Amino acid sequence: MKLLLTMCLLSACQAWGQTKYIFQRPEMGSPFTITIYGMDSASIAEAATAAFDTAEKLNALLSDYVDGSEINRLSATSGQHRWVPVSAPLFDILQRSLHAAILSDGSYDITVGPVVRLWRQARKTHRFPDSAALRTARSRTGYRYLHLDTLTHSVLLDKEGMQLDIGGLGKGFVAQAALDLIRRKGYPIAMVNAGGKIVTGEVPPGKEGWVIGINAPEEKDVLLPSFLLLKDMAVATSGDIYQYVELNGKRYSHIVDPRTGVGLTRRRNVTALARDGTTADWLATACSVLSWRQSLRLISRLPGTALLVTEMKNGKISRKSSSGFRNYLRNPSRYNLSIQ
């Protein structure tokens, strides 16, 4: 697929002998944008192409939307009581997912696929999932039924009908893999935006960091009044701006609480910062499910993480952040934050 190459010639970049290049193409159902600073346009384009190819290959392995993907073939073995060898990328993301589930006490759970599929259908039909079907789907979930053998890179799925779904961390995982490849190609000043799951490298020339905005709750095009300033960090925001269904006057998010099998009904955005894209992504998902106090306890166990929760209540936006989040804000005095 031909890359869209946009060249942005900024005076600060030219002064340092660097030019900013932006590449974009659709991946994983979202716009996938790569920004790279450097001097050799041909080599930079090759690095971007390789990163896009990596994203495409990983999606073909890991997406449950792709017929015949490796993760779907693995899910089809559930309940057969046999260990299945898997590729290194799939084993890696399963390890990360299981670690996330254990740390979050199941508020993030990769095995929630059977329930998620019912809610996908609900968004299409605008009908609440059948209660019997929902009970059956929930009976097929549970991260404790996912077993990994690190010696053989094999997986055992205990329960019949299990369906693995990496939706809560997959884009962050792929974005990080793409950025790591770009760095290996010799371009440390880069950023990858995988549909809002963003990973950043070293600081652009003449800048303090990568400037990143955060959506206001329930707003696709309105940003909160201050911006993040990041380097060598990842950020992910979860909410129901784009994917939800309204049933009987209530709005249900695409984010499902694995403990109840029901889409979340809070009007909230959760923004998580972490040292890598995978962690930021699953933290934003898990902390959408958890209470504020539970979320704070979770991030206290993960060095280098920070959290912002913005919630719409009675027509007003309330904001809470962990103590470290303010350190990453540009113009933090304009942010009405409740530091907890």
Task: Give the tags.
T-fold; globular; 10-stranded mixed β-sheet; 20 strands; alpha+beta; 3-stranded antiparallel β-sheet; 340 residues
DSSP strand count: 20
Fourth-tier CATH superfamily name of the largest domain: ApbE-like domains
Number of domains: 3
Largest sheet: 10 strands, mixed
Could you please say which CATH topology of the largest domain applies here? Answer: T-fold
Mean pLDDT equals 86
**Helical segment tally?**
9
Weakly predicted, low-confidence segments: 1-15, 332-340
- SS content category: alpha+beta
**How big a fraction of the residues is strand?**
25-35%
Could you tell me the radius of gyration in angstroms? 20 Å
